[in-house]
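testing teh design pipeline on a random one, pls ignore if ur not involved
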């Protein structure tokens, strides 16, 4: 199973996907800036690319998870894998929430704005607030169970597909040799699906062009500067979290964070242009398998991580929530902030599969705590997409690192392959016996 990628070949850097997506992004920014009306009209190109990818997510998660779990045979290892994944997700989530909270407390980007919530126009956020009121812990858990076996795929709900795939994989392993013909069909189907993803990725530069041209054309180049201190603070926090927390975890697994970023450069550029990690989910699954992580681990951790391991979203939620409190002169005690973290530990898990994603979860969180005015979220509506650049990047890298951690923890990480691809000097010397170039 391989993803068809554009290789440099005789075209050099021009033939590399990351460069083509970057070029499409730059052209989109220029068009949206110089011709806003035309730029806004480019939205269908970005939407079409995202829809093509989303079309493939359900089937790819299904075949990957089923093949990985059925291949394990030992069902106890499946339970152990799930438990370790959830423990890791919660630990990193808590770290992200605390770091985001401490950073905005120290930076104080909203101080001095003196916004009166009563003067804020609620019309622009009514849809998000209405959706947020519909969210609850019970409804979120119930939503994991699909109405029918097929609806898990038709409704494009990642957790529902994962739920069905785990059940099917466990059942396929339980029937033993009688399930071998089905396994062969799963393998062949998987190869074909990843081949399709390879075809779709040829359109990634066009999708990036359309998405960014619409953003700049719709909100204007000035939107890139509005509420600048919050934007700068959030991107700094994302960088610090990535380097200190994810970098340290990477080092423990034997992987170099910088080499991992280089390895995922195509996916990083695509996510930056589309502000959606869904667009690279199939490629991320395939690339992590190529790093020496066992298929069963990759197939479980990445889909689960897309709902439970949202490091960037957690940074966003604490940063923006406290910014809005500062902007509206809402006093938050230490206990209020600890309560906010406790609520976010639960509500942040609902940031996947919900229309409006992090923005809806933010509204739901503020409504739950009842301390910060919900109406204040209108202040960041115009720059939400800019902030999404940072949170989607951290979510992507966070899930890649999570796969490495769980694979190493389970003893299902091929260190030789990892050392060759993105290993640290320490790992390369120990495993390969050579000094890295």
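output:
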């Amino acid at each position: 199973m391989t993803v068809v990628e554009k290789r440099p070949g005789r075209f050099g850097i021009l033939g590399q996907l990351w460069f083509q997506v970057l070029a499409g992004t730059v052209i989109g920014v220029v068009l949206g800036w110089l011709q806003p009306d035309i730029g806004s009209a480019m939205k269908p190109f970005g939407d079409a690319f995202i829809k093509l990818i989303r079309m493939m997510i359900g089937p790819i998660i299904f075949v990957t998870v089923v093949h990985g779990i059925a291949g394990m045979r030992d069902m106890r290892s499946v339970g152990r894998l799930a438990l370790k994944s959830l423990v890791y997700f919660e630990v990193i989530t808590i770290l992200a929430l605390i770091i985001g909270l401490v950073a905005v407390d120290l930076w104080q980007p909203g101080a001095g704005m003196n916004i009166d919530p009563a003067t804020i126009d609620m019309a622009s956020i009514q849809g998000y607030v209405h959706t947020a009121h519909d969210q609850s812990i019970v409804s979120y858990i119930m939503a994991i169970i699909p109405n029918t076996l097929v609806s898990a795929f038709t409704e494009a709900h990642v957790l529902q597909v994962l739920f069905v795939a785990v059940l099917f994989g466990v059942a396929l392993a339980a029937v033993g040799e009688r399930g071998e013909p089905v396994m062969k069909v799963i393998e062949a189907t998987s190869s074909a699906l990843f081949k399709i993803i390879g075809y779709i990725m040829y359109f990634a530069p066009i999708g990036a062009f359309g998405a960014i041209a619409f953003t700049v054309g719709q909100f204007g180049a000035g939107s890139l500067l509005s509420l600048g201190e919050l934007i700068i603070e959030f991107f700094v926090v994302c960088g610090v979290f990535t380097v200190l927390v994810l970098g340290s975890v990477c080092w423990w697994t034997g992987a170099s964070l910088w080499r991992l970023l280089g390895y995922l450069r195509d996916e990083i550029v695509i996510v930056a242009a589309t502000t959606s990690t869904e667009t690279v989910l199939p490629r991320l699954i395939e690339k992590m398998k190529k790093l020496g992580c066992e298929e069963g681990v990759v197939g479980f951790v990445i889909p689960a991580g897309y709902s439970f391991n949202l490091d960037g979203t957690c940074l966003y939620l604490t940063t923006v929530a406290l910014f809005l409190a500062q902007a509206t002169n809402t006093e938050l005690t230490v206990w209020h902030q600890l309560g906010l973290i406790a609520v976010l530990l639960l509500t942040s898990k609902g940031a996947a599969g919900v229309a409006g994603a992090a923005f809806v979860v933010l509204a739901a969180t503020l409504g739950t705590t009842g301390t910060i005015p919900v109406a204040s979220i209108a202040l960041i509506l115009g720059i939400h997409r800019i902030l999404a650049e940072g949170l989607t990047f951290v979510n992507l890298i966070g899930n890649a690192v999570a796969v490495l951690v769980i694979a190493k923890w389970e003893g299902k990480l091929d260190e030789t392959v990892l050392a060759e691809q993105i290993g640290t000097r320490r790992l390369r010397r120990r495993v390969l016996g050579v000094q890295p170039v």
